[in-house]
Predict the structure.
Amino acid sequence: MNPVTIIAGREIRDAMRNRWVVVATLVLGVFALSLAFLGSAPTGTVAASPLAVTAVSLSSLTIFLIPLIALLLSYDAVLGEIDRGTMALLLTYPVARWEVIAGKFLGHLAVLTFATLVGYGVAGAALWFANTEPDPDAWYAFAAMIGSSVLLGAAFIAIGYLVNTLVRDRSTAAGIAVGIWLVFVLIYDMALLGGLVADQGRFMTPAVLNVLLLLNPADAYRLFNLAGFANVGALSGLAGLGEQMRVGPGILVAAMMLWVVVPLLLAAALFTRRSV
Amino acid sequence: MVSASSELVALDQVTKAFGTHVAVKAVDLSLRAGEMVALIGHNGAGKSTLMKLMLGLIRPSAGRVTVLGGDPGQGKTSRSRLELGYLPENVAFAPSQTGAEVLSFYARLKRRPVADNRALLERVGIAYAAARRVGTYSKGMRQRLGLAQALLGNPRLLLLDEPTTGLDPELRQGFYAIIRGLRDEGACVLLSSHALPELEEHVDRVVVMNQGVKLADASISALRRQMDLPVRIVLTVPPETMARLTALIEPGLQWRLLSARRCEVVCAESRKTEVLRKVAGVPLRIDDIDIQSPSLSEIYADLTAGVPTKAPAKIEEVA
């Protein structure tokens, strides 16, 4: 085994011991199940597929929940170990610093992936048994929603590591993590909306808006899930926006991937220079 | 068999500054296979900084550090790190993992068979708690788990930062027995400690640090000779012969009566034998002679008290 998998394995075991895996899976599962049944009840026998409705409501929930879980997993990944003295020890072993970051990332990503797959998968399975007419398009949207949720989580884990390597103090890192969550999940969209209203279309052309939306991983996720699929987009009322924007799902996924890769590389580079 | 002269660690005029604070100033140091060296000094004297420099955790601001034939700060040190053991000061392993799991993790990283861990845990005396979570361990048990991790793969170089904190006297003896065993097999052990009295009987050499400067680097007996600190000789004689005894040691020597039967003579290390010859040379009944050489604590106090920051008197043993 190489150092990356050894460290990833330890992170996974640690998360299991700390009940992190159980808690995250339960939270996601309970929300997903309640949305699946409560949320699909009003549609009754109308044309809208309960699965598509669930995918839409779940993706709205994911934007709040997944970044929170990801930041909770990652906000002290490096600083916590420096405080405990185990980081200095770990780095005297035959382990490169980037391998420490990569191992932790894989471990935390595995925990988040497991929680998302199981938590949302349970809701999907419940709908599968309840639904007599499975709609392949809706299933595709549901699967894409789960996949992109994992990607969104990965982005916020990477952002959490970057914060860890930028500051010295654990409590500072926690504060910044809360701030990042607030900005990306809540404030960014409000500011954008306010900007659009105040601007009256002078500077905020659709192209500028596209770029601004891609600069927030949570918005990229929202657009991918709410507007990216015809069936789902019609339900969310964002189909018009999606068409006007002409930002394809490929670009949205690429933007989210950049939000994973860039912070991760920066974190590894900063950690390599840091004295422990 | 490793030759006694093989150098495992070499520090050449090493300086480390953190911003404006200079933690280590122009230190030369050489550690060879088969020796146990103590690093002593106040808190903040630069002991941990020296160790971190040797481990490559921090880079020197000036000078050169060579450990096991390479630069510890370079990325390509994986091989030399397999031969190195380190016990940091105040290490706290993940409390939710068991002792056995913690050790397995480090053994895998060091590419050592996990099957050997049981014997290692037995060696440090915590095999009975291997399946318990580290969170339930006492400070001494955590320290012993840390030592077990440092001993993985019988390293050629062991750097131990305050290894005996939290250990009771019996465990300390056990700890030194393990370390001596490794030293006798040819390993080099560098340990920092505040517990000077216990170091005295175990280490081959002492490196004294003060405010980032190396004040002394010699064996304890060499330090005693060169420092020439006073030796206390307590003579116990019958009360009626006390007057004759004091008359005998009167010329040029400092003495005082501790009681009617006990007389204390304080003299320089170099004059110790002279006093003994004087006393033994006459037919005088002596009930007891107690010679107290200056302890490491006294040597250390004298070294660090007289010389503050400027122009420290350096003591080096000529190898």
User: Anything to note?
Assistant: Residues 3-273 of chain A form one domain. The mean pLDDT of chain A is 86. Chain A has one domain: 3-273.
